Amino acid sequence: KRITFSGIQPTGVPHLGNYLGAITNWVSLQNNKSSELVLYSIVDLHALTIQKDAKMLQKSKIEMTIILMACGIDPKKCLIFEQSKVSAHSELSWILNCITPIGWLSRMTQWKTKFQEQKNIRSIEDIDISIGLDLGLFAYPVLQAADILLYKSTHVPVGDDQVQHLELTRDIAEKFNKFYKKNVFPLPQTILVPAKRILSLKDPSKKMSKSSPFEYSRINLTDSPEEISQKIKRATTDSQKGILYSPDTRPGISNLITIYSSFTGLTIEQVVNKYKNSDSKTFKDSVTEIVVQYLQPIQKEIERLKKEEGYVKSVLEDGANKANEIAKRNLEEVYKVIGLRN
Ligand code: TYM
């Protein structure tokens, strides 16, 4: 039995990293005939760790749903739903909290980076959690484990930054199964694509991220051709001649090669062969052209769906109803196993 699950936070417009690292893979996996169930969740409870403006959150959720559908996520092939509409996520999360050692969570890098950003802390070594780390941000990966395990998911398509959370999910599942001597949860596999880590255009030592304060560090799926062109022009590359794929020594240009390769379907080698004698300006122009061309139909579809808000909301309703049925059944089983029901 193959059950596919993934989630995205409604904390703004998705960027090329979200798209190439995760969403395109979601689209291909929803078409996988061997999957008995495919669920994609707008994880609004997770977003609460960052976005606390109620109006913004509401707006972002609808916008995110519209964008996912415009990218090809098809409600006929999968369930799209808001996490908070299925209360079993929070309930299972509490149960998993009770078997998750704090030591496991303290090793997670994501809360450290987010906390560092929020509090403007210079280095991770300087982190002092007594100056205001919310419990929610720290416990975030347990809720993520609950999202996945609630549906007994077996496959989870994500970007590279989520690999550690998936390892934790397997550890929690294994601990639960062993402790209660019952194989309740399968150990879910992480599914990655070659574009699993798209880098910031400003600082290619970092990943492209929704929360970076630098607008030109990322290309949003809703950016105009002019914005895309400006951002790629300003993208940090090096002064070496020629186009070469070498993520360690030439991360900026290699990142653009990955983007170009993902959009065209050409292999990295084919891209490098095509442009090896070009200068970086020529290559950047080609990358711009391909990105603009690729995003155009998606943006058109976003505009169309914006006028169909009623329909989009009904998709979310329907997704939540169906997800709730499965979630309730599985949660009931967990409750029995741990002794809260007979
Ligand atoms: P989020 O909302 O930050 O990102 C959504 C997806 O995009 C991927 N991603 C990237 N991939 C490549 N390059 C990048 N620069 C890049 N930035 C983001 C992320 O890896 C992710 O797959 N914790 C998750 C949401 C979540 C979830 C889950 C995922 C909650 N519960 C259960 C899977 C299963 C997150 O923060 O995603």
From TrEMBL:
Lineage of producing organism: Eukaryota, Fungi, Fungi incertae sedis, Mucoromycota, Glomeromycotina
Keyword field: Aminoacyl-tRNA synthetase, ATP-binding, Ligase, Nucleotide-binding, Protein biosynthesis
InterPro entries listed in its UniProt record: aa-tRNA-synth_I_CS, aa-tRNA-synth_Ic, Rossmann-like_a/b/a_fold, Trp-tRNA-ligase, Trp-tRNA-ligase_bac-type, Trp-tRNA_synthetase
E.C. no: 6.1.1.2
Catalytic activity as recorded in UniProt: tRNA(Trp) + L-tryptophan + ATP = L-tryptophyl-tRNA(Trp) + AMP + diphosphate + H(+)
Range of residues in the leader sequence: none
PROSITE patterns (alphabetical): AA_TRNA_LIGASE_I
Protein name: Tryptophan--tRNA ligase, mitochondrial
Class of the enzyme per the UniProt entry, highest EC level: ligase
Subcellular location: Mitochondrion matrix
GO terms for MF: ATP binding; tryptophan-tRNA ligase activity
Cross-referenced HAMAP family: Trp_tRNA_synth_B
Any one Gene Ontology BP term: mitochondrial tryptophanyl-tRNA aminoacylation
